Amino acid sequence: MEHFYAEMYRVVYEGEVDAAGPAAERALAAGLDPLECVNRGFMRALEQVGREFGAGDKFLPELVAAGEAVQRALAVLQPRLQESGIRRESLGLVLLGTVEGDIHEIGKRIVGALLAAAGFEVVDLGVDVPAARFLERARELRPAIVGMSALLTTTMVRQREVIAALRRENVPARVMVGGAPVTPSWAEEIGADGYAEDASAAVDLARQLVGGGKQ
Ligand code: B12
């Protein structure tokens, strides 16, 4: 098993975009769990590339290639992540998006896939989503939960804008926030109903939010 994880790590770390999908396919064919592939294989490499980029040891093209490699792997893994949930009545609609000015989407996609696997209906608005768009879609779709992702310290402030817009317009949805720079105290400060640090915690949180009770 370890050599599959090592291979997943390597293709992302080296930015071998075309090798990422086949690496995911081989791992699934060998019976590996898709979520383990994400967490133990691809994400560890992406985190390492992010650290090295932050330290100035890797550069933007390498960050882009690593991100693209994970996207290719997710294209293979996402349907399997979603299938792993037993179909049942929807637990509620979750409207997900990455806030304006921010194009990071990998974490949001994983959160969306696990929510879908857990039985939520998920509408993903994509990345760089302005507050007005969150509001428009929330009024139209009446989701139980609005989930916002932000990966940059400069864009997390947009989460506050979206919450203010939803509250101002009396949209009854609960709001959950996440993304690497987001913290529980930030979530509290901006009036979100909850924060989750990873996709599994996001599912637990979403279940609590639709069951009632503030975090
Ligand atoms: C991949 C990546 C990119 C890719 C994104 C590709 C894509 N399609 O998504 C690209 C190359 C495009 C990119 C661009 C940039 N990036 Co970048 N990027 C990363 C990197 C390496 C990984 C992010 C990631 O996907 N992580 C993996 C996922 C699984 O983790 P996650 O997103 O945190 O999500 C998990 C949780 O946070 C949570 N979660 C996420 N969303 C949500 C939502 C809800 C509702 C909930 C409940 C939970 C939740 O669950 C997820 C699953 O477990 C990070 C480093 C890092 N450590 O975060 C830098 C990083 C975020 N990037 C950074 C920077 C600076 C940039 C650029 C400004 C670089 C540049 N000079 O152009 C641009 C910004 C572009 C923009 N306007 O958005 C900095 C941010 C610094 C800061 N503090 O603001 C980081 C931290 C790198 C660093 N160390 O400097 N980046």
Can you describe what's shown?
The structure is a single chain. With 215 residues, the chain is α/β, with parallel strands linked by helices. It has 2 domains: 2-83, Methyltransferase, Methionine Synthase (B12-binding Domains), Chain A, domain 1; 93-210, Cobalamin-binding domain (Rossmann fold, 3-Layer(aba) Sandwich), CATH 3.40.50.280. The chain is built from 9 helices and 5 strands; from the N terminus they run H-H-H-H-E-H-E-H-E-H-E-H-E-H. The chain has helices spanning 2-13, 17-29, 34-54, 60-83, 106-118, 131-141, 157-168, 184-189, 199-210, and strands at 93-98, 121-124, 145-149, 174-178, 194-195. Helix 7 (157-168) links the parallel strand 3 (145-149) and strand 4 (174-178). Helix 3 (34-54) packs antiparallel against helix 4, helix 5 (106-118) packs across helix 9 (199-210) and helix 6 (131-141) crosses helix 7 (157-168). The termini are far apart. The model has no long low-confidence stretch (mean pLDDT 92).
Q: Quick gist of this model?
A:
With 215 residues, this protein is α/β, with parallel strands linked by helices.
> Which small-molecule ligands are present, each listed once?
cobalamin
- General form: globular
Order of helices and strands: HHHHEHEHEHEHEH
What is the number of E strands? Answer: 5
Alpha carbon gap, first and last residue: 38 Å
Proportion in β-strands: 5-15%
